[in-house]
Backbone:
């Protein structure tokens, strides 16, 4: 199972990378905007900075919604670094563009996926990754984890190579449940990854061991 961090924040990316368990980074226009990054050059430089921190898949999202625009933008993004994965929205023009990128060896991440039908289309187009948004489904009283389970079943039925990249993760149990279901990748905020470390018995046990170790001195 691969761990990606879902942020554009360089310090958070560095902190997660330093743990030695980070396989990639996902960003989106909202995460970039949150940091106040403005203008095409600044965006491209920011992606380059991320690629210099993490040697793994780095998703960079297009903002065009027409086929020609997605292709142009995606090809520009792919030129930034060999690890760039072009993130494309789940729309008709996006699926057509994913097919184009797949045929040319450009890696893609089909984003904003909320149903099994959409997941099937992304796999048919040859997307490298498909991003179902768990938390946002939960937010509207749908079962985000159920979608992951259904996608695993469908992809296994046909041996699709598209990797399920569970996104919109809100807490550590989302990560655990995705692992149980067999999602290939999770992308989570740093807080959810760090929360996996926590257990009161670990803290209590360590405290006791260190106290006993004092007796050796
Ligand atoms: O990057 C896509 C996804 O992870 C967004 O998550 O928390 O905005 O629903 P969220």
Residues:
């Amino acid at each position: 199972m691969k761990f990606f961090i879902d942020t554009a924040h360089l310090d958070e990316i560095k902190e997660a990378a330093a743990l030695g368990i980070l396989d990639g980074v996902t960003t989106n226009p909202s995460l970039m905007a949150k940091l106040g990054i403005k203008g095409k050059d600044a965006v491209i430089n920011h992606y380059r900075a991320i690629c210099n921190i993490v040697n793994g898949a780095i998703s960079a999202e297009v903002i065009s919604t027409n086929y020609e625009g997605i292709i142009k933008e995606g090809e520009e993004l792919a030129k930034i670094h060999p690890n760039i994965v072009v993130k494309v929205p789940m729309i008709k023009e996006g699926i057509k563009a994913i097919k184009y990128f797949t045929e040319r060896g450009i890696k893609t991440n089909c984003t904003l996926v909320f149903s099994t039908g959409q997941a099937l289309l992304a796999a048919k187009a040859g997307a490298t990754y498909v991003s179902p948004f768990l938390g946002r489904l939960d937010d509207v009283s749908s079962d985000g984890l159920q979608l992951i389970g259904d996608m695993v079943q469908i992809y296994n039925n046909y041996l699709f190579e598209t990797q399920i990249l569970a996104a919109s993760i809100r807490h550590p149990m989302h990560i655990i449940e995705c692992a149980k279901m067999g999602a290939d990748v999770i992308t989570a905020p740093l807080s959810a990854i760090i929360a996996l470390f926590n257990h009161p018995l670990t803290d209590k046990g360590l405290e006791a061991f260190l106290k006993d170790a004092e007796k050796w001195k």
